[in-house]
Structure formats: structure tokens, C-alpha cells
Amino acid sequence: MAVNSIDAEDDQFAYRYDTQLLIDRRDEDLDEDKIADYVTEHFEGNSLIVAGDEDLIKVHFHTNEPWKLLEYLNTVGEIYDIVIEDMIRQSSGLQG
After folding, report:
1. Residue 10, Cβ neighbours under 10 Å: how many?
2. Residue 54, C-beta contacts closer than 8 angstroms, at least 6 positions apart
3. What is the pLDDT of residues 34-79, one digit of tens each?
4. Which of 27, 29, 73, 76 has the fewest Cβ atoms nearer than 10 Å?
5. At what angle do helices 32-42 and 66-76 cross, to 10 degrees?
6. For residue 14, what are the CA distances in angstroms to 4, 7, 31, 53, 88?
7. How far apart are CA 58 and CA 82, in angstroms?
8. Contact criterion met (CB below 8 Å) for 39 and 65
9. 39-67 burial, b for 16+ CB within 10 Å, e for fewer?
């Protein structure tokens, strides 16, 4: 079952949380293509960027359920430098 994503041009805030983090290798080499494919197939969102190498990967993703993304990525490797920003609050000038 494929997960559908909403085009950012159709609804700028369809996916509210800008989620960014780093993944460090734990036991096995990291595979950015495998991670990107899994996220695309299993999570609703857009603006996915997965970049890095077998030791360190940066992930950027807009989603409404960042905790589910974090749960999966924690199984892939050691996650850190986690930033989750509410883009609706940012756009209305509310910070925090």
C-alpha cells in the first residue's frame, strides 16, 4: 500500500512539522536510498531529503506525525540533533 503525499504547492502547510535530524551508524552501514524508500512508502509527508554516507545521514521531512518518523529512524541508527519545527506557528510569527 503506497502512502500519498500532498504537493506543497497545493497546500503549503498540509504537513505541519519540519523534521530534521542526523543518524549515526550503529551496527550496520547506513543506506540513504533504503531509508528514503522506506520513508516514502510508509509515511505521509513531503519535501524528503536523505543525504549522507554509510556512517552519517541527514534527514529532512515535512510530516504531521514526526514521532512515527523518529521511531523508525531510531531502528536504523543513533539519532541526534533532532529539530522539529511547527511551520504554521513559524509563519504566524509565533516561536517556541
Report:
1. 8
2. 25, 29, 30, 31
3. 999 999 999 999 999 999 999 999 999 999 999 999 999 999 999 9
4. 27
5. 150
6. 12, 8, 28, 30, 10
7. 10
8. no
9. beeebebeebebebeeeebebebbbeebe
